[in-house]
Each structure stands twice: as structure tokens, then as C-alpha cells.
Amino acid sequence: MTMPRILVVEDEYMLAMHLHDGLCARGIEVVGPVATLGAALALLEPEPDFDAAILDVNLDGEKSYPLAQRLQRVGIPFVFASGYDLAMLPSEFAASAHCLKPVDLDQALQQLGF
User: I need a surface site. Which of 78, 81, 109, 114 has the fewest CB within 10 A?
Assistant: First the structure.
């Protein structure tokens, strides 16, 4: 079985490294981590080279929702990660996978289907 490539979008360095190291320890190839919405969106061009994504909701004041919308359109699963109440997600993402920070990687991977 080929291990998935997972994009990590997280602007807090320590949390990004926690995700990176935890995923690598599970044999998963990590794309990133990237800390900005613009950098994450750039990874979708010309075609995404990852199988799933873990998205911090708040990226230094910018929301990751435009990225989530693009991922939905191309059929790439993602999980939102946030330190805030996830009930505040826009209604279009109410059914999206989500977890609280610090991210339980086993839970996140299960939500992503891995």
C-alpha cells in the first residue's frame, strides 16, 4: 500500500512541527508545512500533488476557507484543525471533518480515510 501525501497548512511553528513529525513517524509523506493561504493555494497549481490536507482554520488572520472550497471541488479530503469552537465554521463546511488543537493525528487520519 502506498502511503498518502498529506498537505499540512499551519501557521504556528510548534504545531506545524508536531503535525509534520507525527505524520512522518507514521510513514506518511508530508507536503509542507505551509503557513499562509497563498502558499497553500499555490500548491494546487498546476495540479495538486497530495492526497489529503490538514488545514488550520485561522492563518495569521486569514481563513483557510478558500483553500477548503478548492479542495472540495477537486475531491481532495481535508480536516479542519482549530483551537476555537468549530461550530463557528460556515454552514457550507458544517459536515466537514474537523478536530481541535492539538490535533489527535490518529483521529485526523481516520477522518481523512487513512
Answer: 114
pTM attached to this predicted model: 0.94
Split the chain (114 residues) into runs of 10 and give each run's mean pLDDT.
Answer: 90 96 97 97 94 96 96 96 82 89 94 94
What is the SS3 assignment for 77-109? CEEEEECCCHHHCCHHHCCCEEEECCCCHHHHH
Integer Cα distance of 55 and 46 in angstroms:
20
Task: Report the C-alpha gap between 44 and 106 in whole angstroms.
Answer: 25
Q: Which residues contact 75 (CB under 8 A, 6 or more apart)?
A: none
CA distance 72 to 90: 14
Bridge-partner residues for 5, per DSSP?
29
Asked if residues 9 and 53 have their Cβ atoms less than 8 Å apart, the reply is: yes
